């Protein structure tokens, strides 16, 4: 067992037991799942301080030399796609736009894995100036966090008065040539109050809105099961104003269930991670900004790839470490278990 510094909490790195793992190239786990969706966190920094995610003062800075470089990210993405069966890559954080070399990261990944969809999840602050360049670099999809279209509420929730920049970013993304733009809104009591207005705004702007149940991944540890707003409460509220018709998931492992709004074609989605968990169909694998594999959002055990990467390991050796980490993935988040404890890292530090 070794210990590495991953910036925020100190996280153990397990020697993964793979003695019972079948000899298959893909990222399989003990529960029969196969990870094909790679999420790469590229920074812990952020331009906002959403209360359900970050502490007011932000996350402790990760030393620059501990962050994966653009070239290292491209190499790992290439290994994921060519040796491990990864079919889609998403950059997240923290806020991906905080990295000035995001365009370089995207272009590097597009070069090593041509044809693989490359997406970003972003708060869109400053995106208006970069959307066209990111599309040119090879980014194919953008998901944007927006919880409210009310400026005061936005400022309270994110602790920053940046609504105008976010709305400009969404509009720029919508005309930059991405295949489509999705909006993510985390369900909080105030979000519920503004949910009808937010959905109407998204219908008018022709972007796809998804509401997300809040998970116990806030840095302030204020989440409580009894206080959270459930998907069902949201559907009741939206149902008073819109006609909603259930239309299912895009694919079996997609987190969002969708409803047609007023007969469609517009939809509203709900990601009910807590009350209608989709862990049994999970197809995710994560690389943190410091180059560790994290098999589940809620797992505190991470496996270090960066040391091997910088120590001269071959692509096949790196792939073997990654496979071992995923074989040991947990069954699910376990939020409903009596002994549940939230992970040490908060959402922004994991890469949501
Ligand atoms: N339980 C769980 N929730 C997740 C996971 N990844 C993302 N989420 C939640 O889903 C929300 C939306 O995630 P996005 O980054 O937009 O990605 P996505 O929904 O997989 O993206 P699409 O491919 O566009 O559907 C996040 O805000 C998280 O709250 C995960 O691995 N497990
Ligand atoms: C951590 S953020 C990183 C990317 C970018 N900064 C953004 O906000 O889109 C990724 C996603 O996680 C979601 N998120 C953050 N904290 C959450 C929580 N406690 N529960 C559920 N989703 C959360 C955000 O709404 C966002 O859609
Ligand atoms: S949800 Fe995204 S924008 Fe909000 S604080 Fe977390 S990382 Fe930043
Ligand atoms: S909580 Fe873990 S197992 Fe469940 S969907 Fe998320 S990453 Fe997958």
Automatic annotation (TrEMBL):
Residues 30-249 form the Radical SAM core domain. Transmembrane segments: none annotated. Its cofactor is [4Fe-4S] cluster. [4Fe-4S] cluster 2 binds at residues 279, 282, 296. Its EC number is 4.1.99.22. SMART domains: Elp3. Binds 2 [4Fe-4S] clusters. Binds 1 [4Fe-4S] cluster coordinated with 3 cysteines and an exchangeable S-adenosyl-L-methionine and 1 [4Fe-4S] cluster coordinated with 3 cysteines and the GTP-derived substrate. Pathway: Cofactor biosynthesis; molybdopterin biosynthesis. GTP binds at residues 39, 90, 121, 182, 284-286. Belongs to the radical SAM superfamily. MoaA family. PANTHER family: MOLYBDENUM COFACTOR BIOSYNTHESIS PROTEIN 1 (PTHR22960:SF0), MOLYBDOPTERIN COFACTOR SYNTHESIS PROTEIN A (PTHR22960). Catalyzes the cyclization of GTP to (8S)-3',8-cyclo-7,8-dihydroguanosine 5'-triphosphate. HAMAP family: MoaA_B. This is GTP 3',8-cyclase.
């Amino acid at each position: 067992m070794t210990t590495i510094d991953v910036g925020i909490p100190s996280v153990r790195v397990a020697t993964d037991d793979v003695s019972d793992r079948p000899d298959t190239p893909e990222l399989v786990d003990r529960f029969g799942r196969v990870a094909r969706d790679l999420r790469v966190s590229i920074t812990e920094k952020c331009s906002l301080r959403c209360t359900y995610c970050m502490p007011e003062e932000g996350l402790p800075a990760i030393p620059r030399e501990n962050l994966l470089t653009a070239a290292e990210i491209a190499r790992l993405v290439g290994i994921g796609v060519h040796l491990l069966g990864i079919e889609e890559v998403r950059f997240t954080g923290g806020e991906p736009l905080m990295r000035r070399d995001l365009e370089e990261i995207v272009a590097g990944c597009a070069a090593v894995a041509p044809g693989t969809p490359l997406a970003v999840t972003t708060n869109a602050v400053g995106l208006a100036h970069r959307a066209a360049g990111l599309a040119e670099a090879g980014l194919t999809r953008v998901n944007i966090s927006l919880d409210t279209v009310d400026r005061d509420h936005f400022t309270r929730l994110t602790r920053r008065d940046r609504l105008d920049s976010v709305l400009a970013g969404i509009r720029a993304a919508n005309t930059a040539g991405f295949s489509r733009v999705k909006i993510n809104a985390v369900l909080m009591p105030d979000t519920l109050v503004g949910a009808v207005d937010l959905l109407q705004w998204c219908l008018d702007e022709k972007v796809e809105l998804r509401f997300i149940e809040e998970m116990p991944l806030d840095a302030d540890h204020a989440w409580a099961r009894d206080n959270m707003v459930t998907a069902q409460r949201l559907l009741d509220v939206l149902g008073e104003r819109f006609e909603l018709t259930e239309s299912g998931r895009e694919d079996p492992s997609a987190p969002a269930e969708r409803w047609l709004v007023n007969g469609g074609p517009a939809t509203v989605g709900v990601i009910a991670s807590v009350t209608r968990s989709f862990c049994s169909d999970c197809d995710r694998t994560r690389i943190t900004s410091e180059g560790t594999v994290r098999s589940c959002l809620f797992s505190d055990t991470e496996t270090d790839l960066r040391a091997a990467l910088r120590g001269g390991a071959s692509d096949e050796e790196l792939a073997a470490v990654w496979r071992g980490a995923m074989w040991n993935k947990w069954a699910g988040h376990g939020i409903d278990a009596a002994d549940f404890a939230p992970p040490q890292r908060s959402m922004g530090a994991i890469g949501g």
